[in-house]
Please model this.
Amino acid sequence: MKKIALLVGVCISVLIASATHLLAHHGWRWTTGNNIELIGIIKSVRLGNPHGRLSVDAEGDVWLVEVGQPWRNERAGLKPGDLAIGVEIKIIGEPSSDVKERRMKAEKIYLGGKEFILYPDRD
Amino acid sequence: MRTSRYGYATINGAHILGIALLAGSIITLDLKLLGAWPRADRMSLVRVLVPVATTGFVIVAISGSLLFSAQATEYVKLPVFQIKMGLVLAGILSAASLHLRYGPWLEMAPLDRKVYLAALSLLIWICALFAGRFIAFSAT
Model:
């Protein structure tokens, strides 16, 4: 009886732990949860693990945009050289929950009218 | 490191493995030195835990250097990373002083008294671990 109770307790704990992890989804906790759209010119590019980053000049305001890791960008269809300085870019994604920061995480990227979806499961 | 998907992830995993071995063994050893498990033979524990800690440290150092190389200039500027490396250095110094004072197997440490330096070691390594974890949650 005690062994069964212990086993059930362990199983429930594991389920709760995994459920909270799924909801917590590392990488998006600092964002607002709502999408914004940013249009501007790429000013700097630094791609690669652990985070790919662009700085985008949107009408005088410089935003820091987090793009995917190389495998994610490649999966979305981006080729080396697509994200380059001087290129006009539209980004749909989630901004930082700190409104003073001009920082966002890209969900969809648009270059020359072509769409690149980094996170297909997100809205 | 910058471009590989599973290579980067594997080195990340190796870093965690090294931390598991290093922190697990050091925390256990420090608690023993502070009087835990009085009926467990200290020399036997030391003979097992010191090699495990050393192996863990080597794994941590190699994997850590590789991870660092992915964006070295960004990490160096990050306060939480600087704190972590300071703590790691402090941890190394505390380990060195324990062994310099008490011998490679701590054979010269008194068996009937607590080794209070172990409390400092414990605190340092736990804080280093958390500082390292906080890196991923800090803005660069």
